[in-house]
Each structure stands twice: as C-alpha cells, then as structure tokens.
Amino acid sequence: MSLSTIQLEKFLRSCRITRESFCGVFPSDHHPVITRLPCSFIWNTAPSSDSGEHWVALWIDDRNFAHFMDSSGSEPQKGFLDFFSKNCGKWKKTFGKPVQGILSNVCGYYCIHFLIRKAMKQSNKRIRHPFTTNLGKNDDFVVKWVKTHLKTCEKRNEHERIYDGDEMSIREKS
pTM of this prediction? Predict the structure, then answer.
C-alpha cells in the first residue's frame, strides 16, 4: 500500500484543494525553492542516492510558519532543520508521538491527509483529533480517508465538493 513519488505528485497536483499550494515531492538532500505562501511539499527521509524509506510533509502557512508532520513522531533530520532555519520564521511538529504502525508502509497517506487538512486551514489539534494510541486503527482510518478524497478529486469536473467538519459530502454543481 505504499505510495510512490509519482502517485503522491499526481494526487496532490490534481486535487483542487492542494494544487495551488503543493510544490512537489523531494528526497531529503533536495530542498524546494519557496516562491509563494502558503506552500507545501513532501520529503522522503532518504537521500536521492537511495530508493526511499519514509515520507514526511511540510506545510508553510501565509505567515511563513512551518508545520512539520512525521507520522512516526520523530524529530526532523538535520537537513530539514537547516531548511527551516533558512526559510521559515518558526516551525513546530504536528505529532509528538507515533500515529502510524511501526511495520506499516502508509506514511504517504498520512502526508496527503495532513496537506489536505492544512490546505483546508485546519489546526494541528484538529488534524491530530481522529488519531488514537491504536496505530493499526489509525492506519486503516487514514488510508480510507485518503481513498475517499481521491474519488472526490477524480470527480472534480462533475461535482462541487462541500466540506462539513471532518466529513465530506458531494453535491451537484448548480
């Protein structure tokens, strides 16, 4: 169930909610150039010379405040911290403890979930709300949530998406 760079790029660039702020997917040793705020991107924790290991996400809001999301609850790598200090006013972590199962490979789904919800201007507290200490349930929840949004984004030309809190409904365009 892991997601590739191409899958992450395709989803976030085609989704109406994220496409204006999304700047791409990068290995840990390549950092994006920030040309607009808000902006968002996904990093792999492995460098470009490796095949990849774990996805993390960053949302930089319109005040240049960075929100770092790692579903394993880990601290950012030194290269990421260097990026924050050069490019962001301040930063904070979204998760202080793991929400993803230790043997799970759904970190890309957590990144998509996080970036969509940040693009919807939701707080870190609200983003953390559905997650519990049951990591398996968290993984199931986030995969289902993203797949629901994927179906909605595929229908974007036919429908208007309406958001109601954490749930999403679809209605025909008038």
Answer: 0.87
Question: In which region does residue 24 sit, left (phi positive, over 0), alpha (psi from -120 to 50) or beta (all else)?
Answer: left
Q: Which of 107, 113, 43 is nearest to 77 (CA)?
A: 43
Burial group, residue 174, by CB count within 10 angstroms (0-12, 13-18, 19+): exposed
Name which of 108, 95, 118 is nearest 39 in CA terms.
118
Contact (CB, 8 A) for 15 and 149: yes
Query: 92-114, pLDDT tens digit by residue?
Result: 999 999 999 999 999 999 999 99
- Let me know: does 131 contact 138? Beta carbons within 8 Å: yes
Report the C-alpha gap between 70 and 131 in whole angstroms: 13
The architecture in CATH of the region 5-172 reads 3-Layer(aba) Sandwich (3.40)
Q: Is 49 helix (H, G, I), strand (E, B) or coil?
A: coil
Q: For the chain, which residues make up each domain, given as ranges? A: 5-172
| Digit-coded pLDDT (tens) for 59-80 | 999 999 999 999 999 999 999 9
